[in-house]
Amino acid sequence: MENNTQIQSKVRRIKEQIFLIAVFLCAVIAVIPLFSVIGYVFVKGIGAIDFNFFTQLPAPVGETGGGMGNAVVGTFILVVLSCLLGLPIGIFGGIWLAQFGGGKRGFMIRYAADVLSSIPSIVIGIFAYVLIVTTMKRFSAIAGGFALGIIMIPTVTRTTEEMIKMIPRSLYEAGLALGIPEWRVTLSIVFRTAWNGVFTGIMLSVSRIMGETAPLLFTAFNSMYWNFSIDQPMSSMTVQIYNYAISPFAEWHAKAWAGSLTLVALVLGITLLVRKFSKRVRYG
Amino acid sequence: MKNKGDVWFKRITFLFASSIPFLLFILVFILLQKSLPAIVEFGPGFVFGTVWDPLADKFSALPFIYGTMISSLIALAIAVPLGMGCAIYLSEVSQSKFKEYIAVMVELLAAIPSVVYGLWGIFVLGPWLVKIIPGMTYGTCMLTGGVILAIMILPTITAISREVFQAVPYNLRESAMALGATKWECFKLAIFGPATSGIIGAIILGLGRALGETMAVTMVIGNRPKISASLFAPAYTLASVIANEFAEATSDLNLSALIELALILLVITILINGVARLLVWKTTLKYNPR
After folding, report:
1. Beta carbons of B269 and A118 less than 8 Å apart
2. CA-based, 20 to 30 A from A78: which of A7, B164, B188, B254?
3. Nearest residue to A165 via CA among A204, A134, A193
4. Are B168 and B209 in contact, with CB atoms under 8 Å apart?
5. What structural domains and CATH numbers belong to chain B?
6. Residue-level pLDDT, tens digit, chain A, 284 residues
7. DSSP assigned state of A57
8. Which of B34, B111, B182 minimises the CB distance to A271?
9. Rounded distance, CA B19 to CA B90, Å?
């Protein structure tokens, strides 16, 4: 009888060990792709990166050298454009939701933001295409920035709302007690206190849209030349990497790796920096 | 008498806030309107037909729906056990500092741009899979697409499952431990039950991400609009065909058919996300009412 319980407890302990080892292995396997991606991007990309890579235009097939300077600039222009659309809607929308969004209308808007965040980015690209590209009759940076801006809206809205709601109510009431109008209290006291967290959310969504390719394929399209006018097609790092990656030429593949290295360094750099300052926000 | 500034402040912020549902409404309206020609031309047969021939102006969606579904299911088959295990490790098992590193690294997995995964998939993952799996001859096929998707949805499933596990009250764990349960028994008896609907929600949210993911899949799945039973054959997804053909659509009907594909994708993802969020809310709100 006693023997039986001993065996039983041994079996239980073995089961526990298997469980512990299995979940530990899961955790280890889960991070292997990260190391593989970063490792390959670094090793294969570092060789093709030099000063020219950031200052020169793409070289035609067969010619050595060249870079993706225009694509780096293009990505930054697209990010600025998308901020012009995404930030006002996201920030003011978030403020409204936090301050006045308790009722039915608040629920509806929050729900709409949730739905918007679940829409595949390529579908948003089609939206921008129909709305802007067909009206302007050409691909343009404006259309690309519009698509990326819409992708930003839900994240910025949600973080703004959450960050403002974390500010203690007493701060708000103290402001009102001083006789300051509500809107000044909201903007200059509550929002300013919440700004660090809001900024974190903004940077995370900027790093996300920097890596977006799909909505740019038929909005901002691509360009092999320097272009600073926003009503023209504009190249971006992601689209350029894509075109290089699916081409049959080895020297273009090298450029794709180098572009990826730049992009990954930027995106992971922003994510890690922002994480250091705030631990509360995460990807939506 | 209310302050005039306050009245205007409320109005202006409301204007911005209400532009979100407004944009959503226009988006759905535009997709419906632009896909109308294809809907009228092909009717419900669009969803069940297998021909995609831009030169003959004949379009139908089944190969793409099939490719999207199967590649996402492969992704779930890999990412669900892995992500769950990872979440259990992070929330229930480990107390060490190592755990925080794992959590950050899984989060970074979500930050890597999709096009970089695609590049890595073409030149690293695909050839590697060909090497280790007998019978697989091409790196660009359904299986590679599924595996890439699995890696990309792993952070979603891990993060949300972890959140759900942590929402389960501590006294349930403590009661199980007090009865002498091992960690495995504690998980099985005290945590898994209350967390079930939340976990299903996490899985469905992962599925939602996999369905809409475009670039990485487009680069590794082979892009051939044929239904094939083999996982080693090239396939095509809804999002991929849009990415490949939209800028070069040959006719208005072609464009309209592509937009109808986008509409199908939109409806599927909205439905799936709606269900998933409901399930996650159910668990987290049950134990931590806000």
Report:
1. yes
2. B254
3. A193
4. no
5. 71-287 (1.10.3720.10)
6. 567 888 888 899 999 999 999 999 999 999 999 999 999 999 999 988 888 888 888 888 777 777 888 999 999 999 999 999 999 999 999 999 999 988 899 999 999 999 999 999 999 999 999 999 999 999 999 999 999 999 999 999 999 999 999 999 899 999 999 999 999 999 999 999 999 889 989 999 999 999 999 999 999 988 888 888 888 999 999 999 999 999 999 889 999 999 999 999 999 999 988 887 765 544 33
7. P
8. B111
9. 39
Q: Are B113 and B123 in contact (CB under 8 A)?
A: no
Region of residue B213 (phi > 0: left; psi between -120 and 50: alpha; otherwise: beta) = beta
A250 close to B (CB below 8 A): no
CB within 8 Å: B113 and A115? no
Q: A1: exposed, middle or buried (C-beta count within 10 Å: 0-12, 13-18, 19+)?
A: exposed
ipTM score: 0.91
Cβ A217–B277 below 8 Å, yes or no? no
Is the CATH number of domain A70-277 1.10.10.10?
no
* Residue B237 · residue B223 · CB < 8 Å: no
Nearest-CA distance B35 → chain A (Å): 11
Q: How far apart are CA B34 and CA A66, in angstroms?
A: 41
The residues, ordered by sequence, that sit 6+ positions from B189 with a Cβ below 8 Å of its Cβ are B176, B181
Structure token digits, residue A161: 């709302």
The answer to whether residue A107 neighbours chain B at the CB level (below 8 Å) is no
> Residue B46 corresponds to which tokens in the numbers above?
């669009």
For A218, which residue in chain B has the nearest alpha carbon?
B247
Supply the Cα-derived Rg of chain A in whole angstroms.
24
